[in-house]
């Protein structure tokens, strides 16, 4: 039986959307892959260190960073279901100059990729650090072991496999991270509901550099520009657009199906947001309750060693083991999900500039497999060359800020130029979209200016 192509809107694949919340929940998946990608260095390192620096005072920042960006993600999703376009196809349709066959933004995103390679190299380096802490051995060997496992899993896996692995990883790091937080109850670092409430008052933390670190953490947590772009591929491969079918003007049945599958997409995005918000807040609480109380603010991945030591002192080796297992799953999930997503995005980009035909299934699959091996290998080489995990991850934040500016612009174009009248959303949606766009634009602009202007 020939393989179904999820990127083709074949009328034979049309299906009615579920009418109940339970039915919608049975079709979630794309957002859970994003959650596995989102919960990486930002949550494990930046969020925990922010808690160490500020105590519970900035908990509201973490919540806001996870909540406010979702509306732009929803707009990308709406456009994907309506049009059946991939991310790069959608971006390639934006108004503005073209360089050769592709829109300038496609080339710009490709030019940013060496910086993103450095960022993911830092995450892969962090994964090797954790594996060395757990098992000992040579860190370089663990780097290449991580590359091998990631490449094999991405190369052999189609959507259903990717979703299953990400769901298992998401469940694993959620349970282990929450267990780490709950276990604080039996240590000198137990916290109260009053402590949590104190972090919801909207106060800005004090201290030198605290505000800058808050803004940086806001950018690293929650969905970023990469994840928003990648959401289109997972929606298509899950089948939301295929089940809606190709657009037929004036067809009320198509309008009904489109509204129904967009509603399913809303549920998917909200479920994933709740998942990564829960884990992000848990890491923040670990930093606030333990490290802030000890007066310790570690640098970068030293936070893992410091927290694992705390658990060893308080709960014994099982506590340390549980925390390190959670840290491993968080970092590996980022590597796996990011590699799977970028393999598709790079393949899509090559299609837009004319090097391959993305719509040919066999050609697309071969290129995705090639990237599945090449991408993590480049991450490893970047880490082994630079070996500065913190600055590598921070450098990627600048590229993410630039991508976010494109994403915001594209989202607004999709909403006000491309939305079909029958799918026009309500006023509350538009208000959330503009709030999301304004916050992301301000954050991205601040990050870019801070990286270009000394002492910015």
Key words describing this protein structure:
single chain, 20 helices, two-stranded antiparallel ribbon, mainly alpha
Task: Give a structural overview.
75% of the residues lie in helices and 1% in strands. It contains 20 helices and two strands. It has a two-stranded antiparallel ribbon with strand order 1-2.
What would you say about this model in short?
The protein is 75% helix and 1% strand. With 456 residues, it is mostly helical.
The topology string of helices and strands comes to HHHHHHEEHHHHHHHHHHHHHH
User: Major sheet: size, sense and barrel closure?
Assistant: 2 strands, antiparallel
Spatial extent as radius of gyration: 22 Å
Beta-strand segment tally:
2
Low-confidence stretches: none
Oligomer: single chain
* Amino- and carboxy-terminal Cα gap: 59 Å
Class by SSE composition:
mainly alpha
Spatial strand order of the main sheet: 1-2
Overall 3D geometry?
globular
**Number of DSSP helical runs:** 20
What is the arithmetic mean of pLDDT? 86
How much helical structure, as a percent, in the residues? over 70%
Percent in strands: under 5%
């Amino acid at each position: 039986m020939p393989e179904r192509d999820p990127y083709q809107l074949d009328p034979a694949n049309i299906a009615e959307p579920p009418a109940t919340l339970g039915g919608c929940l049975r079709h979630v998946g794309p957002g859970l892959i994003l959650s596995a990608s989102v919960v990486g260095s930002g949550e494990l390192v930046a969020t925990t260190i922010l808690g160490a620096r500020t105590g519970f005072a900035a908990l509201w920042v973490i919540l806001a960073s996870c909540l406010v960006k979702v509306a732009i993600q929803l707009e990308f999703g709406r456009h994907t279901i309506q049009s059946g376009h991939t991310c790069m196809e959608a971006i390639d349709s934006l108004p503005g100059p073209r360089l050769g066959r592709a829109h300038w933004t496609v080339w710009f995103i490709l030019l940013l990729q060496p910086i993103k390679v450095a960022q993911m190299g830092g995450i892969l380096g962090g994964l090797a650090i954790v594996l060395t802490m757990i098992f000992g051995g040579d860190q370089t060997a663990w780097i290449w072991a991580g590359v091998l496992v990631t490449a094999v899993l991405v190369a052999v896996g189609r959507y259903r496999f990717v979703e299953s692995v990400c769901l298992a990883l998401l469940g694993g790091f959620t349970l282990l991270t929450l267990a780490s937080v709950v276990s604080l109850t039996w240590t000198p670092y137990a916290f109260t509901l009053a402590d949590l409430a104190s972090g919801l008052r909207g106060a800005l933390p004090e201290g030198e550099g605290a505000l800058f670190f808050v803004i940086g953490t806001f950018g690293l947590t929650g969905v970023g520009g990469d994840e928003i772009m990648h959401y289109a591929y997972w929606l298509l491969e899950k089948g939301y657009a295929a089940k809606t079918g190709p657009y037929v003007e004036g067809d009320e049945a198509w309008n009904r199906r489109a509204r129904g599958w967009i509603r399913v997409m809303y549920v998917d995005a909200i479920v994933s947001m709740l998942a990564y918000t829960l884990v992000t807040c848990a890491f923040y609480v670990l930093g606030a309750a333990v490290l802030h109380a000890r007066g310790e603010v570690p640098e970068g991945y030293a936070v893992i060693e410091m927290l694992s030591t705390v658990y060893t002192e308080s709960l014994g080796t099982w506590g340390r083991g549980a925390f390190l297992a959670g840290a491993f799953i968080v970092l590996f999930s980022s590597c796996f999900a990011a590699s799977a997503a970028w393999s598709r995005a790079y393949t899509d980009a090559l299609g837009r500039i004319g090097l391959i035909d993305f719509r040919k299934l066999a050609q697309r699959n071969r290129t995705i497999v090639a990237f599945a091996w090449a991408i993590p290998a480049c991450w490893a080489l970047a880490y082994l060359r630079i070996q500065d995990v913190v600055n590598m991850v921070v450098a990627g934040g600048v590229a993410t800020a630039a991508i976010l500016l494109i994403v915001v612009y594209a989202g607004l174009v999709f909403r006000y130029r491309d939305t079909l009248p029958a799918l026009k959303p309500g006023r509350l949606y538009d208000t959330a979209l503009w709030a999301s766009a304004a916050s992301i634009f301000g954050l991205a602009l601040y990050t870019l200016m801070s990286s270009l202007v000394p002492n910015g």
